[in-house]
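Open question from group meeting: does this chain pack into something compact, or does most of it stay loose? Before anyone orders reagents, we agreed to write out a predicted structure and look at it together. Recording both the input and the output here so the notebook holds the full record.
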Amino acid sequence: MRILKNIFPFLALFLTIPFIGYSQQNKSDETICRLGFNYDISKNRNWGYQQLVVTKVYPYSSAESAGLKSFDIIESIHDMNVNTLSSEEIDQLLNPIGQSEVLLTVKNLSHGSRQILIKKDCKKRNAITEDQLASAFAMYSLETTREQDFTCPFKTNVTTDSVSFDQFKTFAFSPIDENNRELEEHINESIENELSKKGLTLDNVQPDLLIQTYYYFDKNPNYAGANRLVVQKETIYRYNSVRQAIEQFPFLPASASESEAAYLLQFGVRLIDQKLEPGRILWECEANEMMETAYALDDYTQIHVPLMFMQYPYTKYNRNVPYRVSLKSYNYTGISYDIDHLDRVIEVKRDAPAYAAGIRARDVIERIGRHRMNHTPEEFSSAYKQFITKTLGYRDPKSLFTDANGFPYCMTWDVFKYPQVVDALEEPDNLGAFSYLYYFTPYVNPSGNNACVFRIKRGKEKKEIIVRPTIRTEMTIEVK
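Structure tokens returned:
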């Protein structure tokens, strides 16, 4: 099988265990700390120029709890203006030695400067969390845990004037074409929803911005017919925010010839200045798609308007915008394991299901369900590789995709082969202990009972503890 021949060079991508978001280290106490967000030093003269712009906030992080949002401009750290600091000084201020909190002054489209206090979230250097393990063992459940990139054929133009977009707080729509009222009302609803989430308000009397849209959809007059050569076409994936899922679309890749497209679609949005220089186009985003089959414009705009507005007010790309989607749903008990000895509990969160059930730090886990835990990390990795190889035949080739790490043979399970997947996970040689992270799924546990049995050793005492996990769901989408 060709897939079997090519899979082994890529397996290492799944066998590494990443410390996602943990980039700030404190060697003195052997801990790793994070605040829970990523940022750029902005070169954009329309948004946060020479300041920090938040590009991603991690779910369940201290930054999220404190109220930090994507596209927030960080003006100062501990009252020191960031545009006077070097990148090294910024790193030091974001991880102050001897301090557990960081004070930021931030602003965005919905509010002016305000201060927020973010606590450093620290863990021991040798601890690995269930969040990280879910990523490490993602091939158990690509249906719920995957990281995937895609590109949209957007062309984005921004005014060359040095005008900050935080001056524009309200908007209105240009008059509707009565011949297409239903479609345009649908489009305007999607745009209003996105701008409202960013903090702007609708004002039909004296708006700061006028929203103008344009669109085209029709058969391609230059269509030369389907390609008669048997070629494997690239599957086009996009993120559907309505369904919160990554889906396939009948679009042709940018590398295709226009003559291969049976249909052409164009859709664009303009934000026009009504406050400072009326009539000036501040921001415009246009999509041009080539399609194999017809696709409704209202469906297209509902899915792609949120993607377009991820570049407003902070625009990074003028053409072909790359996105990364991270989806993760897994069982959370609150246990952190010793990365060198995965049967040892380093920490249990006090507000978590495992703590409530009675599991404590320094407990030794002998079994999870029927699976023994007395194996080295290398043995777990080797068995995981073996499991991936042995179960390729249980996956659905129609779902084939390349993940964000470049692994090209990702596939979800074939729904008709769930029983075989369950049997494979139960095979002792596959060391499927960490499949409990996906125990709520039918291809791991068909019973529907999400309770997990941990057999632990505490000193000379041994006991079985039933833990009823909560299902944690994380979703982030960002412009790369």
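Observations to bring back to the group:
Residues 51 and 83 are 5 Å apart (CA to CA).
Residues 1-28 have pLDDT under 50 and may be disordered.
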